[in-house]
Amino acid sequence: MNLYIYTLKIDEDTVFFAMHSFAFDTMFKNTYATLCMGGRVMINYDNEYDFSRICGYIERNKCTHIKSNASVFNALLDASKEDGYRSLRSVRYLFLGGDKFVGENLLDFINSGDKQIQLFNGYGPTEATDISSCHIVSKEELASMQENPVPIG
To answer: FRET pair for 97, CA 20 to 30 Å: which of 75, 86, 126, 148?
Structure first.
């Protein structure tokens, strides 16, 4: 738990947004770690897939951390691209897993604005743990992801 808290810099200013169901096993660590450190947890309503509405929710609540699978987050980026990713400007830490990184929107988002976004690619079979390996992804790795897959740990 400490590795997770310190790697993602979870503290009292953290607003963690989970793009998956509250019933999913990874929610325990996200919720527990954030609340233990004095932060807030924002939960996407089950079956809410209007990505424009989700972008508005993230913007209104100034979410700083997002955990999602890569394909769902890419759909969120498609919705946010219309406003130049303004609705996601509060995001500082992005933890993606479960899918291969796809689309150019991810690199556009990371390069947008004046913020520094830390991107993590994680993997873990849910039967054992929700994270068994993790890789901090550089901008250079994202730029070359068509030729070279992004490592998972």
So the answer is: 86
